[in-house]
Amino acid sequence: MNSNSPSFYRAAFGAGLVIGVLDGTAACVSAYLRRSVTPEAVFKYVAGGVFGKDAFTGGTDIALWGLLFHFTIAMAWTVLFFVAFKKVSILSMNKFLVGFGYGLFVWLAMTFIVVPLSNLPSVPVKLVPALIGIGIHMFVIGMPISLMANNFFSKHPNKAPL
């Protein structure tokens, strides 16, 4: 093995960091433009998934927990795709359609499974925010993950997680 070639884990971790930054930035910009919500409030909302409604009255420490949780979630979705990429052949067929599809899948899972199972108060899904969320997930989560996985595995076809 060439010591200069990145390992599967390094590639997936690096991609996860990129996704965390892209999604966090998109979430903060979207929240600010739509409702004048600060980045601190965005990450307090994320922390609310664990800490419940108390997160909304917490300080910077709670926002930092939210940032950590955000990157953990971004990393999980990224690693899941990288692992599945080698095991599910359809994921390598059309990186653009797969990227959009994975972004939609992540949005659906977060909206209808993860968030409802968290300690956040329930909120109804509304059309315009849902469409914005789906677009963000397609363009800043699904598409970049698909492109990065395709790029990594096209250069290192024999690298696998296990």
Spell out the key features of this protein.
mainly alpha; 5 helices; single chain; 162 residues
Outline the structure in words.
The chain has 162 residues and is mostly helical. It has one domain. 75% of the residues lie in helices and 0% in strands. It has helices at 8-35, 39-51, 60-87, 95-117, 127-155. Helix 1 (8-35) packs antiparallel against helix 5 (127-155). The radius of gyration is 17 Å and the shape is globular. It starts with 7 loop residues before the first helix and ends in a 7-residue tail after the last helix. The relative contact order is 0.17. The mean pLDDT is 94.
Task: Set out the fold topology.
Blueprint: H1 8-35, H2 39-51, H3 60-87, H4 95-117, H5 127-155
Helix pairs in contact: 1-3, 1-5, 2-3, 3-5, 4-5
Describe this structure in a few short sentences.
The protein is an all-alpha fold. It is 75% helix and 0% strand. The protein is globular.
